[in-house]
Amino acid sequence: MADTFTIHLKIWRQAGPDQPGKLVDYTLDNVNEHMSFLEMLDVLNEQLVAEGKEPVEFDYDCREGICGSCNLMINGQAHGPKALTCTCQLHMRNYSDGDTIVVEPFRARAFPVIKDLVVDRSALDRIIQAGGYISVKTGSAPEANSIPVDKAVSDKAFDYATCIGCGACVAACPNSSASLFTGAKLAHLNRFPQGEPERRKRTVAMVEQMDAEGFGDCSNFAECEAVCPVGISISAIAEMRRDYMKALVAGEEA
Amino acid sequence: MNLDSKVPSGPLEEKWSKHLNDIKLVAPNNKRKHNVIVVGTGLAGGSAAASLAELGYNVKSFCIQDSARRAHSIAAQGGINAAKNYPNDGDNIWRLFYDTIKGGDYRSREANVYRLAQISNEIIDQAVAQGVPFAREYGGLLANRSFGGAQVSRTFYARGQTGQQLLLGAYQAMMRQVHEGKIEYYPRHEMLDLVLIDGKARGIITRDLVSGEIKRWMADAVVLCTGGYGNIFYLSTNAKNSNVTAAWRCHKRGALFANPCYVQIHPTCIPVSGDYQSKLTLMSESLRNDGRVWVPRKKGDNRPPNQIPDDERYYYLEEKYPSFGNLVPRDVASRNAKIVCDEGMGVGPTGYAVYLDFRDAIKRQGVKTISEKYGNLFDMYENITGDNPYEVPMRIFPAVHYTMGGLWVDYNLMSNIPGLFVAGEANFSDHGANRLGASALMQGLADGYFIIPYTIGDYIAGNELPEVKTNHEAFDEAAQNAQQHIDKLLNVKGEKSVVEFHRELGKIMWDKVGIARNAEGLKEAIVQIRALRDEFWQNVRVPGDQANYNKYLEFAGRVADFLELGELMAQDALNRDESAGCHLREEHQTSEGEALRNDEEYSFVSAWEYQGVNGQLQEQLHKENLEFEFVELKQRSYK
């Protein structure tokens, strides 16, 4: 068995949306390098439950970096220090004996805290609802190979489609902008011939919804790209702006 | 009880089209008068909710995650099968059907599997039209690759994220209908009970996972798309929140549970490193194309692997299966890993791992070629374990991956409870005793896009469904039932945490109802599960309260249900006194260690009827005989 070491934690505790929150200190002295960050929190929670205290609430599901549920701000970095890595895929071997780690929720006006480290990210769903799709009814699709798509275009679309919807881009942005999230979906769908008919309408609707949800504007800090666990490029935002301007010029109503 | 599969008569290839001609329709202006509840938003649930809403039904969609897009279908890696025959390698609907039924070791229903193969092509059309970025050739047309259990290339894929991309397609279609006002969407809601009125499914009870409120929902039909129950093993490749609760609560209201013992165990996962471990990560099966599986010949040999000379290494798959070697099917590879570890030859800190070694492949092909093939997998492995697989062999071990069993359904995907439909991994219908790779995505989407939307219309058009209100006494009773269950969990106030109980249950299941089973072990498991269940209700500690976000409370309810299901799985495995697919009874093997079926006596679906739990779980067995009109039953061999 690997050696264990000690970690000091300062974790955001907040009983509910309208309650005040604060950082609370915990010390764990049985951390081992093979644990994931979330497994380390599991161990803390088991300890808290054994002591008759309330466990720390945090979101998670697949624990393999694809579902986008986990969302922790770790020492001020969304998903922690390792590039291209979700919180659930961050392992404790990235820390040393005696380290202090501050754990907070993804903060944004559009992401209200539900409890402790759990936030409400339903604003991202509403951006997709506004237009993040190609309108095709089940059963009405043409034969798949009747729509050839340049491999390079398709590969590029995939790069944007790989967004896991975690919201790290919002949490890292000084303006709490959701531009990388919205831009990624637009850069995926607007690229395809299938997505062309709704291109203008989709772009305007999603951008307007992003504003309506209370996300800020993009000022090109590029913090979003730096924390994105799947490496979405900030060029998605440039594409979104171009498409948005073109749509407005073409008379698409905002 | 008469288990009528309602399979239409006539030639295999005409059954589905004939059925579509015969079933009743609901007129467009009447559809908006009908409410349909869809529980779960994975491939089956997302596609069903979107398609039903497009048809005009009023749909209510529920999921336990904070967004429909996070359902566990998102984690599927490999691909989706379809009989398009784009590579011109001789594929067709019959071959896809045949491979699937053979892969399932002849324990699935012919007509359902044939329909699945027929629908497979439409799914690809639908997904492409939605903008799913499948891999393409330079000419701009779709690419295919080959997958286990088939001799043709029929798998469509989107890098290693096919499940994610298909799910986002269904999710986006669903979000469009939310925007149109045709779907009411309730994330962070967990279904706790089914409401029956006049014997029909007429609604559900949920708990709002944020406020804790118990809510009532009325409908004309309920579609359950709540996935599989692999998490009963505690450690599995399933997401942490995957559970059996919705299906199990329906079972307790009378829905039959079919073939609960059929569990697929994937051979190449990253092994357990300690008690804190929360889940197991799958490493693609493709690694076995170049990696060699071995353990030290000497028990307890703890030299570093690179210091063990070749003649002291036991390449057990190559020695036992000279023609297939490291490429034997999933079940055979998993079983043999367990055997060598049980014999004390396992490696790593726990002794429950075997080596998957790329030394020879790197020597032969070079680092560059290996990195091109498996670079991302090697990186993922190193991130999790801290070891570099270019330099030291990977350590792997099998893990629970998929459950073929589920609620019993007829050809219309309706359970024995009228109005309760079940789709995707939650039903038992298409994979028999073993699922082939790239078939889960196909089945979930076939059910949701192309079967349920038609068969539900037939049910609604053909049944009297008088208006009901959520203050009906059946809703009162079900809501009280759900509340009492929560109160009971919170009031035990014992000493032991939910996680400890779950881990102990998982160990019993893994040791005795896992890769290989025998009568003695299964009987022991039943006794141990009962004892653990008793202890749970005496000594579980659930922190916090109900009126709040409380993950431990959610888990407590799910573990309580797993503690009942576990007994049924063991009972089903004990009752099925043959081996079939993933269900290996040690008493029934060929001389080569393969699953030995007993078609004379066990060519049936085991469908269990819940009759109560009082110390012991009471279940009555019903049998649906499987008749094979169109395929001949054969013994599998991989020597």
What does this protein structure show overall?
The complex is a heterodimer of chains A (254) and B (639). Chain A is α+β, with helices and mostly antiparallel strands and 254 residues long. Chain A has two domains: 4-115, Beta-grasp domain (Ubiquitin-like (UB roll), Roll); 121-249, Alpha-helical ferredoxin (Fumarate Reductase Iron-sulfur Protein, Chain B, domain 2), CATH 1.10.1060. Helices cover 33% and strands 15% of the residues of chain A. Chain A contains eight helices and seven strands. Chain A has helices spanning 37-50, 122-131, 151-161, 168-172, 179-189, 199-212, 223-227, 235-249; strands at residues 4-14, 21-32, 72-74, 77-78, 100-105, 113-115, 118-119. The radius of gyration of chain A is 21 Å and the shape is elongated. Chain B is of the alpha/beta class and 639 residues long. Among the domains of chain B are: 265-400, Flavocytochrome C3, Chain A, domain 1 (Alpha-Beta Complex); 473-625, Fumarate reductase/succinate dehydrogenase flavoprotein-like, C-terminal domain (Methane Monooxygenase Hydroxylase, Chain G, domain 1, Up-down Bundle), CATH 1.20.58. Chain B has helices at residues 15-22, 28-31, 43-55, 93-103, 110-130, 162-179, 245-252, 316-320, 330-342, 359-385, 440-462, 473-492, 498-512, 519-539, 551-575, 599-602; strands at residues 35-39, 58-62, 80-81, 155-156, 183-186, 189-197, 200-208, 214-218, 221-224, 257-258, 263-269, 292-296, 313-314, 354-357, 394-403, 406-407, 420-422, 496-497, 540-541, 604-614, 616-625. Chain B has a five-stranded parallel β-sheet with strand order 5-2-1-9-17. Chain B has a five-stranded antiparallel β-sheet with strand order 11-15-14-12-13. A four-stranded antiparallel β-sheet of chain B has the order 16-10-20-21. In chain B, helix 4 (93-103) crosses helix 5 (110-130) and helix 13 runs antiparallel to helix 14. The mean pLDDT of chain B is 95. Chains A and B meet through helix 1, helix 2 and helix 3 of A and helix 3, helix 5, helix 6, helix 10 and helix 11 of B.
